[in-house]
Amino acid sequence: MTDDILLSAQNLSVRFGGVLAVNNVGFEVRRGEVFTLIGPNGAGKTTVFNLISRIYTPTAGTIAYAGPNGMLPLTDQPPHKVAGLGIARTFQNIELFEHASVLHNLLIGRHTRRETGLWADMLFTRRVRDAEVRAREKAEEIIDFLDLQHYRDTLVAGLPYGVRKVVELARALCTEPRLLLLDEPSSGLNVEETDDMAFWIQDIQHELGITVLMVEHDMSLVSKVSDRVLAMNQGEVVAMGTPREVQSHPGVIEAYLGTIDDVSNLRRPAGSAPARMAR
């Protein structure tokens, strides 16, 4: 395994009762790239994310992650240790504290970088005060990075949906991740907000040097930001390569549109009138 590999998944399979949700999936994520998983609903993309996050345990296969002392088996790590290893995640359904401000949500994201113990926190020692200042500085840095200054002290419950998506991204960045997992970052966003999200992802990659592993349906966003793409269907790998290579792959086209016969059956014969709904 080369030094530029940050995450390696080999022969992953997950079975839920009689359902094989992921079947023999393997891929490697290189340091500094944006690697995207695509596929129709039910393809197994989020299940793979849940394996990396340690929400699920694979039935078979391994996941290796480049820790500070070399590659370590991620599947041996308890879920609460994953963020501390430098892996952060956003969710398709936003998971924020709605009755806390934007700033407080970001400070919660700093919890994984806690530098003091319980007794020092209770006594609020000088070391604790210094750690609080550093946490606030990092949160303010991310607020500036994502242009959230206007919303700093606003309760999350009062924010538009598109801003909430950015706040969740900001909270993940506050953990100072080496690998950022983005689960459908454009879900629920309009065209302008999706363009902004593409801008943030590119800045996260190029300015912060963070590796991004993303699940996404919006192919315009995928094409703009992805270095490599892996397409899945029915729990299996269909194709892997650049966005252009994957989008033109026959198996990917079939997964999204069906076979040529399927598409032909959807066409009306020339000159025929559209069918009317029964009243």
From TrEMBL:
InterPro entries: AAA+_ATPase, ABC_AA/LPS_Transport, ABC_transporter-like_ATP-bd, BCA_ABC_TP_C, P-loop_NTPase. Keywords: ATP-binding, Cell membrane, Membrane, Nucleotide-binding, Transport. The keyword Lipid metabolism does not apply. GO terms for cellular component: plasma membrane. One of its GO terms (molecular function) is ATP hydrolysis activity. Pfam families: ABC_tran, BCA_ABC_TP_C. Residues 7-259 form the ABC transporter domain. The keyword Transmembrane does not apply. PROSITE patterns: ABC_TRANSPORTER_2. This is Branched-chain amino acid transport system ATP-binding protein. It comes from Acidovorax soli. The lineage of its organism: Bacteria, Pseudomonadati, Pseudomonadota, Betaproteobacteria, Burkholderiales.
